[in-house]
Design a protein that fits this description.
The structure is a single chain. This protein folds into two domains: about 250 residues, Rossmann fold; about 150 residues, Rossmann fold. It is built from 16 helices and 16 strands. Strand 6 and strand 7 form a beta hairpin. The N and C termini lie far apart (about 45 Å).
């Protein structure tokens, strides 16, 4: 009789294609990597939340490989279901369905972005080893981004005023010990960068976070991207077009004196303002939404990928995708970016417009520098940030947690997986 497979449930508010940012892509990437190694993975996400925030009707689901099952939660009252979860910090409309799915029995329940799929209350659901990976700063910030009053980095709590600035109703449960109590149900909190762990500690989150590197898989099919006549070299931005991303500052650096253009891949609410800023700058090209298969070619042919974010990112997958294609990055010295450059040697940091301009000019004029930085980033993706390295660390974390919880049955399931190497996970200091 065959031994039972390791079973992992991943709970997240958004999941592709009903998603906005890199957190959902990370969940899908991890689920697929685990399934490829014999783990049974079930994804639970909230279609109501996506419908309310996007204003769109859900389309067809993406195909999933063998070993991955996706549960889309949806109700006849999307707005009410989403609002109740936001305000009460627990699943209400979907509570019964969540309990039914988790009652099937899992070895690991891994929470990701749970803000609208269940809030803190969902951390008590199910009986398993429990992990939590924050893909934003929701645990310590009602607006998720530590961008105070929608205009500046947060250096101290002014949450009530900030809610009004973002036009969001305050969450009264945040004024209680409810989050702290629910967090006690989680065995391990996982940070994808030192910055995330430090920010959570600085803003009062009491649980220690374990560092675990993210990863990027192999390149997808490389479809060519349509070219302009007499194409000039270009820098590339990939991401949502929001004020927090800092594109309004980046655009101002592109003028006739800089021998390169800026191509912008993505859409978002700040796009009209960005187009206004770029109106008299023919060096700026807005590409709109670009499919992943065409992004690969854009990365490979760019001088560099630029990430000018004004706020705290977690660990943008855009950087790993650029490195995978041998392309360097130019990034603001904020959040995870100093760690990324320190560990990879794959790009240049900047702190202000003068340093940004200097970095762009250096890379535009020095092919040898571009090649050296790009090769360094690519080597790091093939080792430190590879799929094999990340999955080995993840499975080793399951082993260690199972041992601490006296669950040898779970450790045995990990050891029974074919061709899996052991690795150590590192604790955040």
């Amino acid at each position: 009789m065959a031994a039972a497979s390791l079973r992992v449930a991943m709970i997240t508010t958004f999941y592709p294609p009903l998603s906005f940012g890199g957190d959902a892509q990370y969940v899908r990437r991890l689920a697929h990597a685990l399934a490829a190694r014999g783990v049974e993975v079930e994804i639970i996400f909230d279609g109501d939340a996506w419908r309310v925030l996007s204003g769109a009707i859900a389309g067809a689901a993406l195909p999933e490989p063998a070993g991955v099952t996706v549960h889309r939660l949806q109700s006849l009252w999307p707005l009410g279901s989403t609002l109740l979860t936001h305000q009460l910090g627990r699943p209400v409309v979907q509570a019964r369905k969540l309990r039914e799915i988790l009652a099937k029995g899992f070895d690991v329940i891994h929470y990701h972005n749970v803000s609208l799929v269940g809030g803190p209350g969902i951390m008590s659901f199910g009986d398993a080893l429990k992990f939590y990976t924050p893909h934003d700063h929701w645990l310590v910030c009602p607006t998720h981004v530590l961008w105070r009053h929608n205009r500046e980095l947060c250096t101290g709590r002014e949450c009530l005023k900030c809610n009004f600035a973002y036009r969001r109703p305050p969450q009264l449960w945040r004024a209680t010990r409810y989050l702290e109590q629910q967090s006690a149900n989680v065995d391990v909190f996982i940070a994808l960068s030192r910055s995330v762990a430090e920010n959570h500690s600085r803003f009062g989150f009491s649980r220690e976070m374990m560092l675990m590197s993210p990863f990027v898989g192999p390149s997808t099919a490389r479809e060519p991207f349509p070219r302009r006549t007499a194409q000039r070299p270009y820098f590339l931005f990939v991401g949502r077009l929001e004020a927090l991303k800092g594109l309004q500052e980046l655009i101002l650096e592109f003028d006739p004196a800089l021998p390169a253009d800026l191509w912008i891949a993505g859409t978002g609410t700040f796009e009209p303002e960005l187009r206004r800023v770029a109106a008299d700058r023919p060096q700026i090209r807005f590409l709109g939404h670009v499919p992943e298969t065409k992004l690969v070619a854009l990365y490979r042919e760019a001088l560099a990928v630029v990430a000018p974010s004004l706020g705290y990112e977690v660990f943008p997958s855009v950087v790993l995708e650029a490195f995978r294609e041998g392309t360097p990055v130019v990034v603001r010295e904020l959040g995870p970016y100093p760690q990324i450059i320190e560990e990879s040697g794959g790009g240049l940091l900047f702190r202000d417009p003068n340093e940004l301009r200097a970095a762009l000019a250096r890379l535009a004029g020095d092919g040898a520098l571009r090649a050296r930085l790009g090769a360094s980033g690519q080597r790091t993706v093939e080792t430190r940030w590879s799929e094999d390295t990340a999955v080995a660390a993840y499975l080793e974390l399951i082993r260690r947690t199972a041992k601490s919880r006296s669950r040898p049955d779970i450790s045995a399931k990990v050891d029974a997986l074919p061709g899996v190497a052991k690795a150590d996970a590192t604790r955040a200091q």
